[in-house]
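Researcher: Here's a chain I'd like modeled. Treat it as a single chain, no partners, no ligands.
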Amino acid sequence: MDRESMLNTLRDQSTICDFIVIGGGATGLGTAVEAASRGYRTLLLEQHDFAKGTSSRSTKLIHGGVRYLQQGNISLVLEALHERGLLINNAPHLVRNQAFIVPNYDWWEAPFYGIGMKVYDILAGKLGLGPSKNLSKQETLERIPTLEPEGLRGGVIYYDGQFDDARLAVNLAQTLMDLGGTPLNYIKVTGLLKEKGMTNGVVAVEQETGEQFEIRSQVVVNATGVFTDGIRRLDDPAAHELVAPSQGVHIILDKAFLPGDSAVMVPHTDDGRVLFAVPWHNRVIVGTTDTPVDKPELEPRALPEEVDFILKHAAQYLTHDPTPDDVLSVFAGLRPLVKAEDSENTAALSRDHSLIVSGSGLVTIAGGKWTTYRKMGQDTVDRAAMVACLDERKSLTETMNIHGWRANVDESDPLRFYGTDADAIRKLPLEDSDLAAQLDPRLPYTQAEVVWAARSEMARTVEDVLARRTRALLLDARASIDAAPLVAELLAAELDKDEQWEQAQVAAFQKVAAGYLLS
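Model: Modeled as a single isolated chain. Structure tokens:
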């Protein structure tokens, strides 16, 4: 992805888009890919980096949502299970079938959860990933030997999807470009253009240089997640609050806490959520919490009580009780939940998405979750095309391969998450043998991946590389801090930056990474 050539598109005052999508997270990327796949001229603008916020901080699951099944939201579960099946087909290099086990410690849990998971199987239909079944105590411990054996009666095994969220976001940005669209990071929308009271473009500023742009479009889509209300108030300063942000926290532990390939799902915690412990990148991700927050932030921080909550519940189910010293990284994300008039408990709010068209024609898509990002994009483009009186065009994304598509991925290959791009990364050390070296012995990434991120994935900062192009910051925050100077040096060479820039980048990353460490 050549960012400079894309910026030149914005500098051309004759450019008029069909769609401008504000927001480079799951929803914005899904909407932009949907629009571009139908042949609409599409521009996506992200104020920071792709998936900087919520979309890189999920539980890493593509799932129907067992909690929503418990709540009786069958329509959402049906939609999510359908989309789960589509995504596994459309991005098999990133999404995989994951076995989950619900441990049973009370007599009623086996029949209760066993029946519930059978309903889950039925709702998935032809796109199911495998039949659920009850396990004996011995079978449960064979799959999860570190599960607390005292009082264990058995378990229920079922199947869902697991993925790498930030990598999918990067691949969607590449897909958008492949389709002729323009994805740009570090472009902040500061205003909306209007003609005769109708929104017909945006005012935006390039965050690195301060260069300003006025860009015209047939329709503008607000897909900014927890920042939704800020964009809506650019349109109407009196717009009511639509989004109720909720913070979810996860911790990363060593794989020794959950050896093997199976994940654990605890169906009910103290705050009414489910708790997951999931194998991920040869680590274990454990979460999550649900804490209402007053205002959205680009870099939310985990609260001590949230970490304590996760450690406490993990200790109830694992033989080796994790302590703060065992936490390799901790991260927080904000869910963009749509407000319910009569609910102050964000754990009770649904992940259904909502579409709103303002009086000026600004289209806002809010709510939802990663699993349903494609359907959200489809619904948004259908509505936005109608608002702008664009030619009606059929959706193609149900069976459209995402950039990097590769079937039969070798799970032992450290570059498997790049799909077909892995071949090009392997060739980079032929230019410079040093690029084959690891960034740090504790991390599974090489110098070649930094160069690739700068050349082909629009990485602009050390944080872009260590937090989202690779997942180093999440896998081991201390190791990522130690790797930052080398990453800055490699990036500076690719982006033609000086030593002062390198030092500033390292300092900026250290400040961000401090929030991923437990003090």
